Amino acid sequence: MSSKPCVKICAAIVFFVPSYVIANTVIDFENPLPGGLVATSYVQSTIVPASAWVTDQYLNVGLVVDGAAIVALPSGSAPSGINALAGIGGDGRIDYDTPVSFSFFAPGNSGVMGTTDFFGYSADLFGSSRNIITISAYGLDGSLVGQVSYTETGDFTAPLIISGVGQFHSVTVDQTLYNTTSGGIALDLIQFGDISIAAVPEPQTYVMLLAGLGLLGFMVHRRKQDI
């Protein structure tokens, strides 16, 4: 785990807005943790116990996480205090080279997808390793909305963000870990803007729609009889 770099920004797919946008929600991953979460070791290749897997424990604020574990960092490493997130590899071990995904939903309801126009996080406070970080944002249909890259070359003095690309439903943070001995970059202080919820038709709307389809079917049937 290494981290805290000077930022190099590349407009890969879309523009990157350098101005900082105030987040509506910030998650610091500090104790007390929700849903029985217990932080595990931050060390690369540590086997992740079930109690450290982060999934929907933060759904109450509209966030679902995939591929990440709560880890306890060395003293002075986490911007928020002690804990942060690290990726989990396919073998169930801590792997800073594995992408971590964040998706947005109606708070408390994973059945209703949401979108936001801002996402960011703070990297841990360790040194540099020239790891490449790519943040990709995806729409409700899974299409790529925007992408921005950072290179860890010194110290990250501000959150790493993606914004100004329009509304997106999910974000993937992908790090290219060149040197496993130098460690990867932990994710802390996850932040995002207001969550917008797609309008859900009211019950009477469904009734009118079904009635309309029924009428259309009847008219087609009558027309076939008249031919």
UniProtKB/TrEMBL annotation:
Residues 1-23 form the signal peptide. Residues 199-223 form the Ice-binding protein C-terminal domain. It holds the Pfam family PEP-CTERM. It comes from the Bacteria. The keyword Transport does not apply. Keywords: Signal. InterPro entries: Ice-binding_C. This is Putative secreted protein with PEP-CTERM sorting signal.
